[in-house]
Amino acid sequence: MTGGEKLLSDDEMEAIEEMVTSGDLAEQGFNVNVAADKYDITLEGGQKALNTNVLGRINERFHRQLRASLLRELKFNASVLPGKIDIVRYADYIDQLSQPVSLSITKTDPLQGEALCMIDAQVVFSCVDNWFGGIPRSLDTVAKDRAFTSMEQVVIKKLRVVIYAALIEAWSDVFRIQCEFLRSESNPLLVNIAADNDLMVVNRFIVSGPEGELGPVDMVFPFKSLKLIRAVLNEAEQAMASSDSTDKNWQNKLTLSLNEVPFELVVKAGELPVSLLKLQTLKVGDVIPFKAGEKAEISVNGMPIFRADVGRKGDNAAAKIIGNIMSGDNDE
Predict the structure, then answer these.
(1) pLDDT by position in tens, the chain (length 332)
(2) Which among 83, 95, 225, 318 would be 20 to 30 A from 54, CA to CA?
């Protein structure tokens, strides 16, 4: 519309006034049943405003580092799986936490604000069980007012150190961070690191033991702190994409080059024992009687690879591969 142009003509406006005055205007509103997508304006763009692809790569590295560190430091051979990345209101995240829970308020320099390291109580209990030679498993009932014991506090401290180390390593290729422990809480209502409507980025990792899922470990960052470094995250994604393309090209070239490398293949059809005296008396033209066996061993560059049957194909001696020595496969 140009400036001063009316949306409705004078005649149309008069017709509407007459309908309203006479009461002929339908009671049912217009476009009341039109489908609409739900949109939360508090999300400030949500995941579109933040490159979660790079966070996913970081989480992949983190969960591998965490699993290796749990095995090394706590002798706990746990399965650690990364879950999806969620962007939620701080109040909503706090409300869904159950007590007791280990909450470590963490400063992750140079990211702004305070982060939160959440360790589910069942993960703590299972680590203690494993530490003393038991089977890591979830407890059926846990009282909400239950406090962590001194031994559980020691295990929580070890877990926190392991998580911080894994987090620093996971972020190292994207952004150098340092983790500083500030304080701990077991009651979510006492944390207060953000306002209720502030957005938080929740990175959840599921820890499982021999008897199934135990509980989550969360790393929670303020949305604003990650949004401030989104340019760094975007650059990291481009670098990762370029690296992936380079790695793939290198692998293809390596495969093609290996296909052209010659190997020495030897079919060992049998063995002939001979004395040193007999060996010393051999001369050109001597004939050594030898009967090939029915089985043979095929070696490549001196490494036994296949088992084979010895026979003939046309006028040539031949060996038919019947199994792989290295894999133990006996299929033809």
Answers:
(1) 555 667 778 888 888 787 777 766 655 666 666 666 665 544 454 445 677 888 888 899 998 899 899 988 888 888 898 878 999 999 999 999 988 899 999 999 999 899 999 999 999 999 998 888 888 887 777 888 888 999 999 999 999 999 999 999 999 888 899 999 999 998 898 898 999 999 999 999 999 888 888 999 999 999 999 888 877 877 776 766 655 555 676 677 777 777 777 878 888 777 778 888 888 888 888 887 777 667 888 888 778 888 888 887 887 878 888 888 765 444 44
(2) 95
Rounded Cα–Cα distance for residues 24 and 222 (Å): 55
Give residues with Cβ within 8 angstroms of 93, minimum separation 6: 200, 202, 220
- Size (the chain), residues: 332
Residue type (1 letter), 94 = I
Whole-model pTM: value is 0.59
